[in-house]
Amino acid sequence: MMLPAEIIRCKRDAQVLSDAQITDFACGLADGRWSDAQAGAMAMAVLLQGMSVGETVALTAAMRDSGRVLTWPEATGPVLDKHSTGGVGDKISLMLAPMLAACGAWVPMISGRGLGHTGGTLDKLEALPGYTVDPGDERLRETLRQCGCAIVGASADLAPADRRLYAVRDVTATVESVPLITASILSKKLAAGLQGLVLDVKVGNGAFAATPQMALDLARSLVHTARGAGLRATALITDMSQVLGTTAGNALEMRDAIDFLTGAAREPRTLALTLALGAEALLIGGLATDADGARAQLQRGLDSGAAAERFARMVSLLGGPTDVLADARLQVAPETLPVLAGRSGIVQRCNVRALGLVVVALGGGRVRPGDPIDARVGLSDIVAPGTRVGPKDVLCRVHVADAESAGTAMAAAHAAFEIGDGVVPTPGLIQDCVRA
After folding, report:
1. Which of these is catalytic: 24, 56, 65, 82?
2. Structural domains present in the chain
């Protein structure tokens, strides 16, 4: 048995850790042999000294193997998934899972909850009355057998070492380590038994990666580590200097996702990114031979109603409304108030993080783990940078639970928009692509 303090010292002194040392760390996290203090010290050493790709692969594999690893012998197609590093208004998982299933993929999508100013897929799904994100193994498999996709949370026995390390990182200022982020994301995805993964690495003021270089470093780390662990992966680096779509908030985004699937409304940037991510997934899974053909397949799945039908069946099988496309039974906030521009000009930029924090302050996100979520609240009709506005034009609408919270939320939302007289260039939606 190795001494935790010696392993920590090695990394503190910038030594390359052996596979055995890394495995001891992961096992010690899972079985409690490493204390929180030791786990925090190790995380700080990794943050300061970094890890090689080989070390990151070893850590990812060790955390994957710290719990149960799913297999899918009954899969009728390639086992694929998508992961986003988090943004505001990012609801793409809700549409992409059934779209991929409609194209022949098997999609056990293990998703997460909101973190900080970013929304979480599980929180959006729980805006649907009765939807269960922890269905148990047999119900999960039955859902996949019937509709090809299931969006659920990670069970307690899936990568338990990561669950422990993530909690320690959150309180020791070590969240920003690229190797630890990489291992955290990929250990859960590998434990889910995937054969292919597409990654949406956000960049901009509403993203974890605020600079293009940080986003590129993270994308490369994710793709190269996945390849080293035997998982085919591609990463797109995409813009988060404006909200994706026009809403932020759980029930509002769920409404948008249903409208997207049924064809009632499809915001252009959201459609473009959904098709781009889906095309990469189909290429990885061998379900398409070129990007144009992949996009055409995905579009046919949307336009034919096949993707919407699979989504509806998934929701019903997992306890949600039985006719979600016709009546999602989504709750509506008691009051909706407009935030007016107050002057003429062009929206120069938007502080996306600030808008995400408005949703959190309204009760639509969590300040602490376990905080209750109010699915009704949020923002809608959010204008994009480059939009010309007049004094009485709406920058966004605030959906609030009570009048007391309205004033502060409206002021914070207004402050998030900068209006000027010049025309400003806006970043492209897809900024880079990293493939193995």
Report:
1. 82
2. 4-64 (1.20.970.10), 80-327 (3.40.1030.10), 335-420 (3.90.1170.30)
